[in-house]
Design brief:
By secondary structure, this protein is of the alpha/beta class. The protein is built from twelve helices and eight strands. The radius of gyration is 20 Å and the shape is globular.
């Protein structure tokens, strides 16, 4: 049976600095611009609506106040996680249209809830032209969440963003794969020191996009599933300049299409988000049309007639042993009912038992009044559970200084 895509707009621009004094970043217009080019119809996707963000207003924010718009981003992230969870609970494949890269916090929170529910870990494939790894430990200032999102979702930074609902980190360092950063990324050595696996553009091109996608699968073999983040500034500005921070040395649309197709062509890929396209730099809509073409082609494996429904690895008898020296305290795994088909490691998709090609979407939905104990990916799985900090260690942050970046 095919997997149905559900498109959710997350048109936030709260994580970006103003392009000019008193102006507002234009990436909040991206979902509408992509929809105008027939994205939903071409994907035959369900319209999952729009989560309206708070107003963009730095107000009296000053350098030294930490991340700008932090309370608003935190509130929005919780609401976004709820919406993503509802999509996954229906057995659908979420495609989140940002907005800036701060949408990753909502996705990460949803994935951490999911990992908590199944007693496993969810990984992240981070496809981005920049590492977004700035944090108080390696920079003289913080200020814009879109330049700090990978640091925040791996537990670095102020608690109101890095530890929402007491969950910290949302993704462990060893469960993150970074693809497409430039060879001279400012924080590449910090990523290496943290044990975060990377493949910059030169290596990605040398190996090829298809092989890189398979390599990413292999890096996350110990995870129950993974989420894909795509910032369109991974593309070279020669072909896609309509972003807030174009940086030479990126990949081409064809490479992104192949990479995306390889990443989603497995039931262990749980969803995709697309960020940072700015229609203000695309007056005739040509770049929006190219992005839509790429996304439609890249997501073709998701909606193929023989696509396998989402599956997660079952909980093991104990939490995985952390890597030596990472300072993390293992937590007991939570055992939950999982279907028999949810036993494959991440890798090439297998054919689900009993798949007769029919639309089984209704099988994911509980009957009225039915208690929700459900399958590994199914109804009620992402109901919120308050938990203590995931790694059991205090993480202190000195007051950050600086301006939005």
């Amino acid at each position: 049976m095919m997997r149905r895509i559900a498109v959710l707009d997350a048109p936030t621009n709260l994580g970006l600095r103003p392009p000019t004094v008193s102006s507002v970043p234009g990436c909040g217009k991206a979902p509408g611009a992509l929809r105008d080019h027939g994205l939903l119809a071409r994907l035959r996707a369900r319209d999952a609506g729009c989560l309206t963000p708070p107003r963009y207003d730095p107000g009296d924010w000053r350098p030294g106040d930490g991340v700008c718009h932090a309370p608003e981003i935190s509130t929005y992230s919780v609401a976004l996680a709820d919406r993503i969870g509802a999509i996954i609970d229906r057995g659908e494949f979420p495609l989140v249209l940002g907005g800036d890269c701060s949408v990753l916090l909502g996705s990460a929170l949803a994935m951490h809830r999911l990992g908590e529910a199944v007693g496993g870990r969810i990984g992240l494939v981070f496809v981005d032209g920049h590492s977004d790894f700035r944090h108080p430990g390696n920079a003289s200032y913080v200020g814009a969440a879109a330049g700090e999102d990978l640091a925040l979702v791996t537990g670095r930074g102020q608690p109101d963003l890095a530890a929402i609902e007491g969950r910290r980190p949302y993704f462990r360092d060893i469960d993150v794969v970074v693809l497409g950063i430039r060879a001279q990324d400012e924080y590449r050595l910090d990523l290496q020191a943290a044990g975060i696996t990377t493949r910059p553009v030169p290596a990605l091109r040398a190996e090829g996009a298809a092989r890189t996608a398979q390599w990413a699968h292999e890096q996350l073999v110990d995870c129950a599933g993974y989420w894909v983040h795509i910032d369109v500034d991974v593309l070279d500005p020669a072909v896609m300049p309509a972003v807030d921070a174009p940086d030479p040395g990126g990949i081409a649309f064809a490479e992104l299409e192949i990479l995306l197709a390889g990443l989603v062509d497995t039931p262990h890929c749980l969803g995709v988000e697309l960020t940072v396209f700015d229609p203000d730099y695309d007056p005739d809509g040509a770049y929006a049309a190219e992005i839509v073409n790429t996304v439609v082609a890249g997501l073709a494996p998701v909606v193929a007639p023989d696509a396998v429904p989402p599956r997660l690895l079952p909980a093991g008898p104990a939490a995985p042993t952390p890597r030596a020296g990472d300072g993390r305290v293992p937590r007991p795994a939570t055992t939950v009912p999982v279907p028999a088909v949810a036993t494959d490691p991440i890798g090439p998709p297998a054919v689900a038992d009993g798949d007769d090609g029919a639309d089984d979407t209704a099988a994911w939905l509980p009957e009225p009044g039915e208690k929700d104990s459900g399958p590994a990916v199914g109804p009620g799985l992402l109901r919120r559970v308050a938990v203590p900090g995931m790694d059991g260690r205090p993480v202190g942050e000195a007051p950050a200084t600086g301006e939005p970046a």
